[in-house]
Amino acid sequence: MMHQSYLLLGSNKGNRERNIVKAVKAIAQQAGIVSKMSSLYRSQPWGFQAEKDFYNLALLLQTPHEPHTLLHILLEIEKSLGRVRDSKPSYTSRTIDIDILFYDKLILESPKLILPHPRIQERRFVLRPMMELDQDYKHPVSGFSIAHMLAACNDTSEAEEIKKMENIFIKNK
């Protein structure tokens, strides 16, 4: 059975666009079928100061993997692309960050994974790319659409579209 999952990718270390492209390719090779991608966005770091802004991209993944297995695959992809997780629970610059935003309409709270992602509605850099993928998608907890959450979002930071991304480079199994 295939599951539908929305992911958000971010990078603010090294060649940010290349990091995102490599991550999308790895996701397509290891986690399922990338069926839709947003444009690439630039946004300020959220919750900390950094030298470089983030590049972000959202994608829709069709995956046969259960949520915790998908999380494990994504963490391994991050690690293979140079992500080093600090033991401190603070925000830091990173080569790649891959978050599971939604997984089907699942509501889940476990020690390693909370679905849907708990801060979607607070972050413009999440909502802007999600608008491209499905502005009418309803948050399984609040029932609000992506469009409604973006209109109500108090985050005043920029989430600027910088480049349309081509799906051509994605090679699926």
Write the SSE topology.
Blueprint: E1 3-11, H1 16-30, E2 33-37, E3 40-43, E4 54-63, H2 67-80, E5 97-103, E6 108-109, E7 114-115, H3 124-134, H4 146-152, E8 159-163
Antiparallel strand pairs: 1-4, 1-5, 2-4, 3-4, 3-8, 6-7
Report what the structure shows.
With 173 residues, this protein is α+β, with helices and mostly antiparallel strands. It has a single domain, classed as 7,8-Dihydro-6-hydroxymethylpterin-pyrophosphokinase HPPK (Alpha-Beta Plaits, 2-Layer Sandwich), CATH 3.30.70.560. The protein contains four helices and eight strands, in the order βαβββαβββααβ. The strands form two sheets. Strands 1, 2, 3, 4, 5 and 8 form a six-stranded antiparallel β-sheet that branches. It has a two-stranded antiparallel ribbon with strand order 6-7. Helix 3 (124-134) runs antiparallel to helix 4. The longest helix is centred in the first third of the chain and has 15 residues, at 16-30. The two termini are 16 Å apart.
